[in-house]
Automatic annotation (TrEMBL):
Organism: Aspergillus candidus
GO biological process, one term: DNA alkylation repair
Residue ranges occupied by any Fe2OG dioxygenase domain in the UniProt entry: 410-555
UniProt xrefs under PANTHER family: ALPHA-KETOGLUTARATE-DEPENDENT DIOXYGENASE ALKB HOMOLOG 3 (PTHR31212)
Name used for this protein in its record: CUE domain protein
Stretches for region Disordered: 258-278, 460-501
PROSITE patterns in alphabetical order: CUE, FE2OG_OXY, ZF_GRF
Domain GRF-type: 566-611
GO MF, one example: zinc ion binding
Length: 637
DNA sequence: TGCCAACTTAGGTTATGCAG
DNA sequence: CTGCATAACCTAAGTTGGCA
């Protein structure tokens, strides 16, 4: 067996010794973690296997007592030969070879039910399906996904003969002479289809089944239409529909101890989404754009820059604090910590004494850090690009939304959040619009541990079981393909769609170094949350922590010197009506003091009016002196 | 006199899936 | 079928001036 390292010429750092082994490590192991599709897989053994290790994928097609005995010998021999072949095929230092040995891990598919006596063609097709089910974008496949091996009676027969021969002659067996059967396939076909398209295909195949059921099986088949169709056909042929089809046939064997992840022994609890308010997990950027008012960009920054920013902010996060507020009689504390960042000392002063947050002055305001400033330039460029794309491709008539600003988006303030450990979270909320104005756009950069960002559409309570016409009331928000309500069959009787059914719940996975753009319609029409996680995959630099920088554009026209005050002297805050169907989408200024610990609300209420570009109509024109403004992060020094 | 404008999220309750 | 574990759902209460 021979190995050719990745064919792509990888840039070699001048500091390190350039060698084939180094190059192989770089292109086939380390860099895999940076591949867009791979990083966006759900955390767990599957992703670790794909991103942290290399080695062949093996299908076993022979099952007998003898083969059971021979199989471990074969796997051991294979690992041994690979180890021996490394220095021969890939020049490099001993250390580099050692690293390659330790990241080697084969994977064995050994489902007797599925592969017994399978032909090479059947294995090739199973391998193909496996790759398709990973839902990788069309990247060049890592070496382990380019070939697979088959262990059949022929392979094991020759191994047995070799062993016998060696025993007879009293010599060590010559494993190097044993053949391996390789089924090769470089690229799967392009399968980038959205969940909607897949669902539509399945509906056409199984018109009698509900979309819910189909979606269920599709999700449990990791998004593979073929696998879903197979499972359902088998089920239908066999018996009355039973849930949960074929259990996953894969077993990961590792011949040489390799990177062990703490969560290894429980290979993802594989929880099935519950039917009600089912959570739709989205991984690919296309799906995110199609189902939510967000755009996600994986691997946003060069890896070094992302790491540098992460380290800088981890250091900063020691000084973060937890937001306290009042709900009913209790003072509660947000289950994560945060801080606000602004550009200059003058702004710092304003933010602690002029701007208010949640009904009180912010005590925790910090000045922007060097890396945050560098990054903001790129955030600004990409966010503006994405906004333009969305206007062109998604919004009606290719025009910006009503109240959305036509101006360039310029980040001049940022909230930085820290979620330390899987339990830290934030409940469903919308961001305060007071200084951002209507149809605000936010650029949110995730660093460190990957967490789930959940979004759900806001549905006024009285809209829920009126079998409303499919056209959404707020015609202004065409979330592309809002295929959100698959269950539209309802009896006039007591089977009302619950609010949760209508609202749905969508999970966007936010890996390290990804930028999520929350588009203009997000805050008015959707709520978002970071849900507590069952398990997380620790990040090499941040451990259990996730750092999140949300770049915002504070509008000059909403400087606190203009915004209304309520009777109690507090700054009123700007919100959008969400619950009342009739006034849905209107903006209002209200007193927020009721939420500040130790303060009482004065119940100030006033409708807020804006022009089509989201500029406020102030009753009194602001005093002529030029109001203080916040500096673009990128400009300030 | 009563209704109305509208808003918080923790935590108890319920639905679901699965093992025995 | 039962019981358990987990995920998701849904409720709570107070404020004030204006108007019917």
């Amino acid at each position: 067996m021979s190995f050719q390292g990745g064919s792509s010429p990888s840039p070699v750092s001048p500091i390190d010794e350039p060698s084939a082994a180094k190059q192989f490590l770089q292109t086939e192991v380390y860099d895999l973690g940076a591949q867009p599709g791979l990083r966006s897989l759900p955390p767990g053994s599957e992703r670790d296997f794909l991103t942290l290790t290399w080695g062949p994928i093996i299908y076993q097609t022979i099952y007998s007592p003898e083969s059971d005995d021979l199989l471990p010998i074969f796997l051991h021999a294979l690992a041994r030969e690979i180890r021996k072949a490394l220095p021969r095929c890939l020049p490099g230092t001993a250390q580099q070879h050692d690293m390659l040995v330790h990241t080697y891990s084969s994977r064995l598919f050994s489902s007797q039910k599925m592969f017994q006596q399978a032909s090479e063609g059947a294995v090739r097709s199973a391998f193909h399906n496996f790759k398709v089910a990973l839902m990788l974008p069309a990247i060049e496949l890592p070496v382990r996904l380019r070939v697979c091996l088959v262990i059949d009676s022929w392979v094991l027969g020759i191994l047995a003969a070799t062993l016998e021969h060696a025993e007879f002659k009293g010599e060590a067996p010559q494993y190097g002479l044993c053949p391996v059967k390789m089924v090769e396939e470089n690229f799967p076909d392009l399968y980038q289809e959205s969940t909607d398209v897949k669902l539509a295909q399945l509906v056409s195949l199984f018109p009698d089944l509900s979309q819910d059921t189909l979606l269920d099986v599709l999700v449990s088949s990791a998004g593979s239409v073929e696998a879903t169709a197979t499972i359902i056909s088998e089920q239908l042929a066999a018996a009355p529909i039973k849930k949960r089809a074929v259990s996953r046939p894969s077993v990961q064997t590792s011949l040489i101890s390799h990177i062990t992840t703490p969560g290894d022994r429980t290979p993802e609890p594989k929880r099935r989404p519950t039917k009600k308010g089912q959570t739709l997990h989205l991984f690919s950027p296309d799906d995110v754009a199609a189902h939510t008012p967000c755009t996600i960009i994986h691997n946003f920054l060069p890896p070094e820059q992302a790491n540098a920013l992460l380290l800088e902010l981890l250091d900063e996060s020691q000084h973060f604090s937890r937001y306290k507020f009042q709900v009913f009689d209790k003072t509660v504390e947000s289950p994560h910590s945060a801080s606000v960042y602004v550009s200059t000392p003058e702004e710092h002063r304003q933010h602690t004494s002029v701007y208010t947050y949640g009904g009180t002055y912010r005590s925790n305001v910090r000045q922007i850090t060097p890396h945050m400033r560098n990054v903001s330039t790129k955030v600004q460029r990409i966010v503006n690009d994405e906004v333009q794309k969305r206007i062109r491709n998604v919004y009606p008539g290719g025009k910006k939304l009503r109240f959305q600003s036509p101006k360039e988006w310029i980040p001049n303030a940022a909230f930085v959040n820290c979620y330390d450990g899987p339990a830290e979270s934030v409940g469903y909320h919308t961001d305060e619009l007071t200084y951002l104005g209507p149809k605000a756009i936010i650029g949110s950069l995730s660093l460190g541990v990957e967490r789930e960002f959940r979004v759900r559409r806001i549905v006024p309570p009285d809209e829920e079981d009126t079998s409303s016409p499919p056209s959404n009331s707020s015609a202004d928000v065409p979330t592309a393909g809002s295929g959100g309500d698959p269950t539209r069959k309802q009896k006039p009787q007591k089977a009302p769609q619950t609010r949760a059914d209508v609202q749905g719940q969508i999970s966007i996975h936010l890996p390290h170094n990804s930028l999520l753009v929350m588009h203009a319609e997000m805050q008015e029409e959707w709520k978002h949350a970071i849900t507590p996680a069952q398990t997380i995959s620790p990040h090499p630099l941040s451990g259990n922590r996730r750092i999140n920088v949300t770049y915002r554009w504070y509008r000059d026209s909403l400087h606190p010197q203009y915004t209304p005050r309520c009777q109690c002297g507090q700054h009123a805050i700007l919100r959008c009506v969400q619950r009342k169907k009739e006034t849905r989408g209107r903006y209002m200024w209200t007193c927020y003091a009721g939420f500040a610990p130790g303060k009482q609300t004065c119940n100030f209420f006033q409708w807020a009016e804006f022009d089509d570009d989201g500029e406020p109509f102030w009753e009194r024109k602001p005093i002529e002196d030029d109001a203080p403004t916040l500096a673009n992060f990128a400009d300030a020094t």
